[in-house]
Amino acid sequence: MKWEWRGINAWKNPFDGGEKLVVQYRGIEFESVDAGHVFLGTEKGGWMYGGQRPRHEVRCPQFYVTKAVLSQPQLKDLLNLKDDDIKLGGERIQQICFDLSNDLHSTEFELDPSKKWEVRCPSEGEWRRAHDFLELNLEPGKIEILSDGVSDNYRGAMMDGRPRAFEGLGPMARHRAAIETHPRQEGITALSSAPMDRELKEIVIRLVITPIREGDAVRVPRNADFSANIRGEIFWTFLLGVLPSFAIPIARGMGSYATTGWANLLFGGLCAGFVTGAFWRPRRPTILYEDAEESSIDIGRD
Questions:
Q1: What percent of the chain has pLDDT over 70?
Q2: Are 36 and 152 in the same domain?
Q3: What DSSP line would sit under the chain, residue for residue?
Q4: How many domains does the chain have?
Q5: pTM
Q6: Mean pLDDT, rounded, for 199-207
């Protein structure tokens, strides 16, 4: 069985059903990722998970990704440096992406000529989609830079896989979102961030060749249903905190204390209800692409 050559530096992999397109560009191998969707975030309702909500669908077009992060020899070639141990920061990453995007010609690699293409770090949606599709190679104890800005939660996040810009003021504007791998356990990752105003040894990058999304982005609604959240919190605090606080002394034959010590019982019940809210509340709804596309106002609860 032979490789099927496509254009100058691209071919189909016959060992993968003849469907996967592999692109060689500047000595870097990019593997195709079929168009598809992935879900980001969590449905867990506890307030400790607030920064990971809402769970939402992200739809990505076909794109190409490096299965492994760029190696030191590749970085030396791209940056035209001779350092033995190249550290990465914002300026160097920006230079790499700009140079590769500027020299990329879609016709040479048989990319769809109707689209504009760019080379950059993946967005979180693209990274998760590529990991589900290809099972990316992960290095332990590394901080892999994404193209997204830092955000408090997924409210306002892009649902078409394009990068999310930083929205706000302050020092976090100099940070970028990142996938951080566990220093010892393989396959364990966490969404993190890293400063881009200095070069760090732990920073690594992988790249994508991806179509530039044009036009207005489909985004997760920015606002939650605040009144529904308040009503739900009052209900569950009463059910899991206040009600047991009064029921327990009554069940133990201390009914008089429920009257004389009501203030203490109420305060204790509110505290207990608040604590339960940290770890458990009913699951929150998942926002689908069509839901956000149909409306730009509040959808469901955060």
A1: 90
A2: yes
A3: ---EEETTTEEEEGGGTT-EEEEEETTEEEEEE-SEEEEES----SGGGGGG---EEEEE-SEEE-SSPPPHHHHHHHHT---SS--B-HHHHHHHHHHHHHH--GGGGT--TTS-EEEEPPPHHHHHHHHHHH-----TT-EEE-SSPP-SSSTT-BSSSPPPPP-S-SGGGGEEEEEEE-SSSTT-EEEEEEESSS-BTTEE---EEEEPP-SSPPB--S---HHHHHHHHHHHHIIIIIHHHHHHHHHTT-HHHHHHTHHHHHHHHHHHHHHHHHH--PPPPPBPHHHHHH-SS--S--
A4: 2
A5: 0.86
A6: 96
